Amino acid sequence: MTDDPRNSFSVWLEAARPKTLGAGVAPVIIGGALAWSDGGFHALSVVAALVGSLLIQVGTNFANDYFDFVKGADTEDRVGPVRATAAGLVSPATMKRAMIIAFALVFVPGAYILYRGGLPFLAVGLVSIACGVLYTGGPFPLGYLGLGDVFVLIFFGPVATAGTYYLQTHTLDSDILLAGLAPGLFSVAILTVNNLRDMDGDRRAGKKTLAVRFGARFAKGEYLVALLIGGACIPIYLCLSADGHYGALAGASVLLPAIPLIHRVFTQTGAALNSALASTGKLLLLFSVLFSVGWVLS
């Protein structure tokens, strides 16, 4: 397998899986909005958190591309978007180097984050990188054990949201952590579509995602519940808890365009779910913007 220099940019862009990168952006937007509302907004901290979050996600996506190929999970029967390593567009050694570089670059914004937030953020960063590698790598990969949903919920939810908020305000409370569950649950929904689409291939490769372990009906229910709790229940609770910021309920309006999307997830299989995955990512970004703007302006 060799690199394809003719389309190198598009190859690496696709390997970064841009349609899923909203999972790294959304919690930072929400954490920034919450800090703004509390009078603690700090632009450089938000930028550092955003860059760090995206680099960790890209590094994780490169790791998935590499390790899924090595473990035989990506084959010619794959129904999802082309994986660069499996398709022969990038050699395994090159993808491994790209993974290492992406994770190493985390320490550039990480240096400022550490300066601003203190040693706890070093632990958060190191654990995030380790989980990014161990999601599909190592002897006990999280994604192969059905623990990927937990990883996504925690790190693209409360960790990223609360981390962004704390970097700016140096304070934290339970409602900030709860707010972080909303983008985390939307990210779980993205992963659920991915796992539902790849069920057959994952089963053959011994990748025991929750969809493989408990079946398609469970995965569809998980998708629906994640959207309902993340998109409606959490915003409603937060507004009631704060006795205000009711404009944030605008975030729940994303459940309207989600209705046909839910129908697709419940009725389609295989490659037909690729568009549903991308649409769920857009839904997450739309929710984060509507919730954040509504929270700040009300």
Task: List strands and helices in order, with pairings.
Blueprint: H1 8-15, H2 22-37, H3 43-70, H4 92-105, H5 107-117, H6 120-134, H7 148-155, H8 158-169, H9 174-197, H10 199-205, H11 210-214, H12 216-242, H13 255-267, H14 274-297
Written description of the protein model:
The structure is a single chain. This protein starts with 7 loop residues before the first helix and ends with a helix. Helix 2 packs antiparallel against helix 9 and helix 7 (148-155) packs antiparallel against helix 9 (174-197). The chain has one domain (5-297). 71% of the residues lie in helices and 0% in strands. It has helices at 8-15, 22-37, 43-70, 92-105, 107-117, 120-134, 148-155, 158-169, 174-197, 199-205, 210-214, 216-242, 255-267, 274-297. The chain is globular, with a radius of gyration of 19 Å. The longest helix is centred in the N-terminal third of the chain and has 28 residues, at 43-70. The protein has 298 residues and is mainly α.
Fill in the keyword field for this structure.
mainly alpha; 71% helix; globular
C-alpha geometry:
globular
N- to C-terminal separation?
55 Å
Largest sheet: none
Q: Give helix % range.
A: over 70%
The topology string of helices and strands comes to: HHHHHHHHHHHHHH
Mean pLDDT: 94
What is the radius of gyration? 19 Å
Structural class: mainly alpha
The count of strands amounts to 0
Number of domains: 1
Low-confidence runs of at least 5 consecutive residues: 1-6
Total count of helical runs of at least 4 residues: 14
Short overview:
By secondary structure, this protein is mostly helical.
